[in-house]
Specification:
Carbamate kinase, 8 helices, 11 strands, about 20% strand, globular
Amino acid sequence: MPPKYKRVLLKISGEAFCKEGHTGIDIDEVQSIARQIKEAQSIGTQIAIVVGGGNIIRGSTISKHGVTQATGDSMGMLATVINALVLQDVLEHEGIPTRVLTALSVHSVAEPYIRRRAVRHLEKGRMVILAAGTGNPHFTTDTAAALRAMEMKADVILKGTKVDGIYTADPMLNPDATKYDNISYLKVLAEGLKVMDATAISLCMDNKLPIVVFNLRTPGNLRRVIMGEPVGTTVSA
């Protein structure tokens, strides 16, 4: 059976690169992500990846301690480049040809993001890792994921998280929280659910781009989502 989605944008938060409650980079966690990506790519889907950098530094956090927002955000964008490089290396050890494209100019370690080049890499069977967000302060990597997905004509945004979907409240704090199988963009915005930031949700809503939120830490989940199995929560119109 062919996959439901031919081209996907996978958003991976920085926290996925380390153990729960820790910071930095844990190679075991990165290898686990890489194995899931390899399994998913083997069914013929083109995968572009936007990585966060919260395991290293958060611009929004450091800006509360005397650093300007623009500087903090620039530091956060550089952190995503670090994550992209380690993910690239681990993926290539898994036998997957990979390219890192960045919105900031770091040409000695990665290519600049050019839409046509990124799409061409996908068409040639290469994995594309997109780093440095949009290249602008005040925009999150969630917004970057929405923007890149639309530019590259992805069928869906897959947001890999540590929970198995969207809940009425934080399931870590509220044991009575219930999970949504499907939810509308407007309801996510109206209820302030922590799915993606409001700018990203609005971009997806305006362009009718669905979002699937799922647990990336569960082996095989990425492949299941791409095949169209009922995993996680789907955000759509």
